[in-house]
Write a structure and sequence with these properties.
The structure holds three protein chains of three kinds. Chain A is an alpha/beta fold. Chain A is about 40% helix and about 20% strand. In chain A, strand 4 and strand 5 form a beta hairpin. The relative contact order of chain B is 0.12. Chain B has a domain of about 220 residues: MetI-like (MetI-like fold, Orthogonal Bundle), CATH 1.10.3720. Chain C is mostly helical. Chain C has four domains: about 60 residues, no CATH class; about 130 residues, no CATH class; about 200 residues, MetI-like fold (Orthogonal Bundle), CATH 1.10.3720.10; about 100 residues, no CATH class. In chain C, strand 3 and strand 4 form a beta hairpin. The longest helix of chain C has about 40 residues. The model of chain C has no long low-confidence stretch (mean pLDDT about 85). Classes of the chains: A alpha/beta, B mainly alpha, C mainly alpha. At the B-C interface, helix 1, helix 5, helix 6, helix 7 and helix 8 of B face helix 1, helix 10, helix 11, helix 12 and helix 22 of C.
Chain lengths: ~350, ~325, ~500
Amino acid sequence: MNLKSILIGAVSAIAVAGAAQAGTITVVSWGGAYTKSQVEAYHKPWMVATGNQIISEDYNGGLAEVKAQVEAGNVIWDLVDVELSDVVLGCDEGLLETIDASILPPAPDGTPAVDDFIDGAIHECAVATIVWSTIFAYDTTKISGVSTIQDFFDLTKFPGKRGMKKQPKANLEMALAADGVPADQIYAVLSTPEGLDRAFAKLDTIKDSVVWWEAGAQPPQLLADGEVVMTTAYNGRIFNAFAAEDKPFAIVWDAQITDFDLWVIPKGAPNKELALEFIVFSTDTQRLADQASWISYGPARKSSGPLIGSYATKPDLLMAPHMPTDPENFKTAIANDFEFWADNADELNERFNAWLAN
Amino acid sequence: MSGLPPYATTGQRIWYYAFRVICGLIFVFLIAPILVIVPLSFNQQPYFSFTNEMLTLQADAYSTRWYWDILKNGMAAPEAIEGWWADMWQNAQWIRAVKNSFFIGILATILATSMGTLAAVGLSRSEMPYSKLIMSILISPMIVPLVITGASMFYFFSYDFNPMNWFAEGETAAEDKWQIAFTYGGLIIAHAALGTPFVIITVTATLVGFDKSLVQAANSLGADPLRTFFKVQMPLILPGVISGALFAFITSFDEVVVVLQMATAQQRTIPRQMFSGIREQISPTILAVATILVIISIGLLTVLELLRRRSERLRGLSPG
Amino acid sequence: MTDATSKGPLTTADGTPLKRKLEQAMFASRLRAFGLVAPLLAFILAVFVVPITVFMVRGFHNPTYETYMPKSTELLLEWDGVSEPTEEMAAAMVADLIQARADKTIGRAATRVNQEYSGTRSMFTRTARKAAKMEAPFMAALVKAHKNWGKPEVWQAIKVAATSWTPAYFLAALDLKYKGDGSVVWQVEERQIHITLFLRTMEISLIVTLSCFALGFPVAWLLANLKVRTANLLMILVLLPFWTSILVRTTAWIAMLQGQGVVNDLMAFSGLNQVILQFMLLFRDYGDLKLASLCSNDVNGVLATGEATLQTLSAQAADAQTTCAAEMVRIYSASGLEAAVAQAGALKAEALRWGYGDERFSMIYNKTGTLVAMTHILLPFMILPLYSVMKTIPPAYLRAAKSLGATNWTAFWRVYFPQTVPGIGAGSMLVFILAIGYYITPALVGGQDGQMISNFIDFHMRKSLNWSLAAALGGVLLIIVMFLYWLYDRVVGIDNMKFG
């Protein structure tokens, strides 16, 4: 036995193990606690039930990667969790496979899927799993008395760094809301050049104090490390921090921006059929309700609602009051205008990046 | 300055010690960050900072949970007893990353070392034409910023290299395309290219001390060139070849920019996995992996030092 | 052997002239040497040089618009870019829009034009939706669908996009704008970001190089002048970081520098943070910062609990109160809770503005983080060349200088230092070249103001998908690096590069 044969043996063993096997799909989602909720509610049961494998990859939203893969003719993702505006955009540009809604399983009482899903949750190219929202949160041991979106932009009353996602979406809406625009007029104002200038001007007032985040898992981390005193975040991530890790974080629901997350299949995905099977498996009534016991996002099916109970590892922590759709939380909610963002995302991203770099 | 002379003035004494303190601080700067991660990787809490309990050395503030997490993260059923090993080997993210890193690293090293050694031998011959120009081309992968290398390779490797499709009308089916991007082959080629400069440099350095009359002696005694190379030249430059190979392997093992652009989730290497870990969620699992990597680099350092001594002994540069 | 006759040239046994035979032998051995190099040379050319060249060409060539909008392209290229756009052009545009919408390629064409004229993407997609129902006159129909169709500069931008071979991207990489009529102007001010970025990249690289030199020189000197055994031991402290993954070291610096990190903890524990702050204050009176730093506990207390802390503070004896506690109590009793909290907020805001809040400095996710981590990562590249040069300088020179009456400083500066210059040159060039293209560390710890040009190349490669601009920015960076590489070769010689 010499070094050479050992080396050859090791290499071939690794090569065999590393090679892709039949029945593997790459599922791309937002990482951290959200991916964990999907893994617990969808992936693990599916892997155990079918013997297939799931490669889980994280990304930070947007269509860039999908577009790059489709345009290079080199698609490696099978299933992606995206926001509604990106579904509209991607479907328009031929980046996504169409999904026939009739393959989706009906509710337990027999209601067909198309009626069981909330309005807008089923799209030509996508199927929604959750309703989520962008909120802002703070550490209750550091500051108190935060209640409105104005407080987020008030550096004198609440000094300290702010965390915000490095994108214009949600930030522009919050800026306008803080500037006094009522929830139902936000997008009308944003559609005018003056409205845009106004939103950017409001962002200017805190620009120097902002720590920009990109991944959904970062905001709770920024709060926990004391890097920021307040941060915008996906509501489920903050919930997870206080439910699973007992962090003293509180959510401010004022001017929350609600949105869907949906499954899409990139055009030319290598394992399209298997991905469709997974969509069918993961969007039945029970799975959606299961996911809601891991993270505080509302299920996209009406029939899943009554099945939601308490947090998976804490029987006395009820999920309902933490959902974005809870009436108490929903009072000043802004429904994300997916058409506005589908039309303007590119231009506003560009303007936002130039604004950031200057 | 291996000691302070007895006639040193007070000023010289102060400077002597101050200078050592300054150097000591610089050494602390060099080494402290690497040492700090070791205790932090045993943090019970999912954070990156020392807790008060840790500082007061309470046993329950420390745990090995993040080391277990390296094995468990990504498994379908981490609590199951039956099929645990198979599940871990197949599904655990970090295990997959380790497999990929070694697979890509070893093959890239073999490619880089074989071609690089030959080239270094050729370049060191006095009759080699244009050696300076060729040398600078061959070294350039080390100099060109990795972002440019990665972007260019991704762009170029996305081309369809199947000549049957070049003049075909319409869309080509994915399975008929010959693309290198997003394949193991592409990553291996890219890493081999990045590793060759190190092989050339280290092998050339050993060849500098190489006595050419040995080759002539072998030739005159009737050995053919191949035999001369493997029996005479190779054993003498072997330390250079091995340390070049080590450099090539480490280059691949540590490379993330090209992997970032050219690898699928399935092909992620250890640094790529760490990169998304740092970006997306700073969990002490990264610290646990980092600690293991530090231990590996201490091992490599030892190997390299032994090789260096062997080389010097063989070439008679030092008494050994 | 026929040399005795000296009739013809020297020949070998088989009759060929010796000169030619020698040439043949030389040629054969050259060929052999080249044959050894050939596989690698071919490999590097095929997988490295050619891809980079092809990518750089992409910086001049983007056929997207031409591919998806062929009819309008033809007319746009004929158009002079100055006169009024014609009805014929509008008709071709409408035909293209209809086709591109049906093919679902409108988004790609629109994105290309949007790179030249921001705001045209939605103009294209929205118009394309209505295009099928449009009737002549088409120009009027287009303007009706979106008013921007009436602007000549929009048509000029489309003309630029329709020209597949274009200098527009390389000009954009230098913050210049190429217009449809062939003129070149500066980009509007709020979008001039690339030159700033190149300058910042240079600045960061320069600071990193200088810090590496300042830290590396004493260490290299020490290593070169200690006993071999001790030096080898200390060398491990240099080589261990060198052999440790860049990702590991970057991670380590996050643990060190973050708000609750080791450095901040140590400084807060030892009171060093106050010392540094007072030192800062020596040079300039930062006003409220001084106040806030003196009593951050009180300020934070007031901000967290408001009334309760204020009452506790009021109850304290006047001489036990800190300056700003007294100030807040005074405002509290004079103008009420709101005003006192506002004062606390103002104090804290001022402290934060100087990177100092909660008795901690912000040192990561900004330029400081990039600088510190990069210096650490590149320091061995400075120490190793310096060490190998210093090792060759006999210590006797220094002693000789001193015995001839030179002071320590003169001996060092006039005798020793000049001999280390080759090492300084090699180390500095290597560090600078590696720093200028750095990507990972700024991406992970750079925050906003610590980003470098590589990060923007990657952004355009993987996020905005403007590959041509990425290629152009890469081209400019490559030219800078190649120049430095050439300089390095001239000054140091690439064959003198050594590791470990």
